[in-house]
């Protein structure tokens, strides 16, 4: 069996230490052969786009429902911004006017002379304006020297015509760290009081092992001014034992409460909480959600209260040195599967992980970073359905959908093992 591009499905895959044969999946699972995944029953999928240069790849895909009701998905197609001094990618866009059944594109969203990292969408309450936040490696304001190649200004564009054309970029220059540089590709939020909060981290690859610090950028006046939280560089959050914390994802809980989830190399997602609209935070602590050194994937369900945390639910216990943290076969295989846990109390407690999908294709790239990639998932709900957007194997954008009512009954590990 092969996917629609002729890549063979694996004879066997490992899902949470369970051997699964894609040609004969266990009860309550199915094989979506055309898109190269094994998934829970009831999920359907299609490939929206394949990278123009498959060996170069594509990066984080983010989607939103526009003010006029279309679905808009955008992603950089080409090389990673931190890997070359030359321009190697374009931010591409696809649009659907029939709730994601058919897609039209690609178009180039931003016709600019430097690479992009990702599309972080925000549609402020009471407006028809779409913002596109993200990392801006602008020549002259960005350097790849001295291990700082992931750090760049953070900025945003906006669109008043439903995402068809975009303004010039405006850079964020926080009052307490005007030259702030970092990386931002995770979803952001707007609080009930109207504050905007986006996560950003700095990385220093000249350190051995890698050092990262996590921050939040916060604006009370719709982007006119900003502050860095918890403090200016290099005083961000980290897990002291590893000197790492990155890719924070803030989400509004209402009533002045904001919740944030973080990537760490500890084998768990971590979280922090604010009770004053994101101004001050209780220090980050580990959650019970098993996860490798990979990003949080945290979203609201349609009730605006229930949290859905998609996580990999597997972790290779790495030593605390650079060689262990970057063991490609172990670390990147941990990104091969997606599970989901729900919280009805704002992230204080989480239910049992339930299986969503896993990569089912044989390795076909020279690097393990590509072969099993099912991370950096994006999600929104609309008209009773969950829509997932996946940069599968960093070379195709996959759109998955299923009824939202099917989410709580997705199978646990014990349930799909049952005869």
* Cα Rg: 20 Å
Give the N-terminus to C-terminus distance in angstroms: 25 Å
- Inertia-based shape: globular
Which strand order spans the largest sheet, edge to edge or round the barrel? 3-4-25-24-23-22
> What is the name of the CATH topology?
Neuraminidase
User: What is the mean pLDDT?
Assistant: 95
Low-pLDDT runs of 5+ residues are none
SSE inventory with pairings:
Layout lengths: L12 E3 L2 E3 L8 E4 L4 E4 L3 E7 L11 E4 L5 E8 L10 E8 L7 E5 L11 E3 L7 E6 L18 E6 L10 E2 L17 E2 L5 E9 L6 E9 L7 E3 L16 E9 L2 E7 L4 E7 L7 E9 L6 E4 L6 E5 L10 H4 L2 H6 L3 E7 L10 E6 L8 H4 L6 E5 L2 E8 L3 E8 L9 H5 L2
Antiparallel strand pairs: 1-2, 3-4, 4-25, 5-28, 6-7, 7-8, 8-9, 10-11, 11-12, 12-13, 14-15, 15-16, 16-17, 18-19, 19-20, 20-21, 22-23, 23-24, 24-25, 26-27, 27-28
Compact overview of the structure:
The chain has four helices and 28 strands. It is mainly beta and 419 residues long.
Descriptive notes:
This protein is mainly beta and 419 residues long. The chain has one domain: Neuraminidase. It has 4 helices and 28 strands. The protein has helices at residues 322-325, 328-333, 368-371, 413-417; strands spanning 13-15, 18-20, 29-32, 37-40, 44-50, 62-65, 71-78, 89-96, 104-108, 120-122, 130-135, 154-159, 170-171, 189-190, 196-204, 211-219, 227-229, 246-254, 257-263, 268-274, 282-290, 297-300, 307-311, 337-343, 354-359, 378-382, 385-392, 396-403. The strands form 7 sheets. The protein has a 6-stranded antiparallel β-sheet with strand order 3-4-25-24-23-22, with no helix packed on it. A hairpin with a 2-residue loop joins strand 18 (246-254) and strand 19. The two termini are 25 Å apart.
């Amino acid at each position: 069996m092969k996917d629609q591009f002729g890549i063979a499905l694996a004879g066997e895959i490992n899902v949470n230490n369970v051997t699964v044969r894609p040609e004969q999946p266990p009860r309550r699972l199915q094989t979506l052969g055309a898109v190269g995944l094994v998934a829970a029953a009831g999920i359907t999928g299609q490939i929206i786009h394949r990278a123009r240069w498959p060996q170069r790849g594509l990066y984080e895909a983010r989607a939103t429902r526009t003010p006029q009701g279309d679905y808009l998905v955008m992603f950089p197609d080409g090389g990673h911004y931190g890997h070359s001094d030359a321009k190697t990618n374009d931010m591409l866009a696809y649009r659907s006017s029939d709730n994601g059944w058919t897609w039209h594109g690609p178009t180039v969203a931003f016709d600019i002379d430097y690479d992009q990292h990702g599309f972080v969408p925000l549609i402020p309450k009471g407006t028809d304006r779409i913002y596109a936040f993200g990392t801006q490696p602008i020549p002259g304001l960005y350097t790849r020297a001295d291990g700082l190649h992931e750090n760049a200004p953070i900025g945003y564009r906006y669109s008043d015509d439903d995402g068809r054309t975009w303004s010039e970029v405006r850079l964020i220059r926080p009052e307490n760290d005007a030259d702030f540089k970092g990386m931002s590709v995770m979803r952001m939020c707007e609080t009930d009081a109207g504050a905007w909060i986006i996560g950003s981290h700095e990385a220093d690859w000249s350190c051995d092992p890698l050092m990262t610090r996590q921050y939040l950028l916060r604006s009370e006046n719709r982007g006119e001014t900003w502050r860095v939280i918890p403090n200016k560089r290099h005083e961000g959050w980290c897990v002291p034992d590893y000197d790492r914390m990155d890719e924070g994802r803030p989400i509004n809980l209402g009533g002045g409460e904001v919740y944030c989830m973080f990537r760490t190399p500890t084998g768990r997602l971590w979280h922090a909480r604010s009770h004053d609209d994101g101004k001050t935070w209780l220090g980050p602590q580990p959650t019970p959600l098993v996860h490798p050194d990979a990003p949080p994937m945290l979203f609201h369900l349609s009730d605006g209260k229930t949290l859905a945390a998609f996580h990999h639910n597997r972790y290779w216990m790495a030593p605390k040195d650079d060689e262990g943290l970057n063991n490609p076969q172990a670390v990147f295989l941990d990104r091969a599967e997606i599970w989901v846990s729900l919280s009805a109390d704002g992230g204080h407690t989480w239910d049992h992980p339930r299986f969503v999908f896993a990569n089912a294709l044989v390795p076909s790239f020279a690097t393990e970073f590509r072969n099993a990639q099912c991370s950096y998932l994006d999600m929104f709900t609309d008209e009773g359905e969950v829509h997932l957007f996946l940069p599968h194997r960093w070379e195709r954008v996959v759109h998955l959908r299923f009824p939202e009512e099917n989410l709580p009954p997705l199978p646990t590990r014990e349930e799909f093992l049952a005869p």
